[in-house]
Amino acid sequence: MKLKMIGCNHRQAAVEFREQLSFTAEQAREALAAFRNRFPAAEVVLLSTCNRIELYTGAADGPIPDDQDVAGFLAHQRSLPADGLLDHLVHLDGPEAIEHLFTVAASLDSMVIGEAQIISQVKQAYELACDSGSTGPLTHAAFQAANHVAKRVDRETSIHRRRVSVPSVAVGEVVPEFFDTLSDKSIVLIGAGEMGEETLRYLIDAGAKRIHVVNRSLDRAQEIVGRLAGTAHPWSDLDALLTKADLVVSTTGATDTLIGYDNFLKIHEARYERLLLILDLAVPRDFEHSIGDLAGVYLYSVDDLQSACDHNQQQRQREWPKAKSIIEEETRKFVAEIHHRATGPVIRRLREQAEQLKQEELKRLMGRLQHKEEESAAMQREIQQSFDRLVNKLLHPPLASLKDDAAAGHRGGLLVALRELFKLHDHE
Description:
The protein is α/β, with parallel strands linked by helices. The protein has 3 domains: 2-162, Beta Polymerase, domain 2 (2-Layer Sandwich); 166-305, Rossmann fold, CATH 3.40.50.720; 338-427, no CATH class. It is built from 14 helices and 10 strands. It has helices at residues 15-21, 25-38, 67-77, 94-105, 117-132, 137-156, 166-174, 194-205, 218-227, 238-244, 261-271, 302-369, 373-407, 414-422, and strands at residues 2-9, 43-48, 52-59, 90-93, 186-190, 210-214, 231-233, 247-250, 276-280, 297-301. α9 (218-227) links the parallel β6 and β7. α4 packs across α12, α5 (117-132) runs antiparallel to α6 and α7 (166-174) runs parallel beside α8.
């Protein structure tokens, strides 16, 4: 099996280095085409996310570029010096590369173990490679198996079911304690940065319909609601929206408190003590803590939610050994299957060659028996069976040894030896 992985990830490369190597979708498409032009016999899939840039190269049969060639290709694509680049990259071969791919797809190598986005990113990378014509039998098998492994880990462990980000805990675990449904609730999301966008996605997934996004930059608010959902509002609308809100989630990066106790009192009086859940995810806090003492107001800060995140992260860690065991088992199965596929053509050719020799000898013998028609039919059958037994006896030892060698990863070299000894490659 000729499969390699070369690249870097958040475990051994700083974000500044990963940024220099990262690819947009269009850049990845161009890189795949360039790779196939430079190495036409090789297959390639390029996985580029914020936390990793990895090239998976392989070939079912034939040469593939070595690590230095791949590093040089990456350097050329990203306009970086080639000298010394390989020293900053991880390079894995064969079973290690397969196990790494399975681990990545199952989200065990992610910055946040069990995060759901990575399997989609692996699928997108594979689909882009398929569309670009840069995949082949080995990468098809590897990435389809990776998808199967990820599904099995998801099905047989709870590693993906524990929320570990503050927005996911806030929307997924706190909100259901107050509201049976969000479909009829008025929701105010304050802030349209990275955390605000993540929160908006969770709110949409939770069934929220009436989401009002308020941000100091109205253009930014309009941009994310245009891509996702909700209604954008200028900052001046905030007090009026808070008066009618059922749920408020605040995610700004402000350095000072946005809503003080005295300011909120006017809003609270206009609400007539209707229930209000405030999830203040900002650091520093956007809402003065004493606001939570008002009747009908329930205020949660990041500190209140972080303990739940930590607990869920610990639960995910407990599931790690079970998930890792699944990956190791699937890696062994995959590698054994790939080695078995490699022996198949040789075995078929060996049997075909033996069968051809047998038929030639039988034809010569049968021709001599044709003048004795009554006796020849029974005799021909006996001879046919004798030759079959002879062929099977002759082929059994080498084929049994070849099977054992395949299970060991062809380390004994018997596959190559059989090709040479019986000249099987002459007819392939």
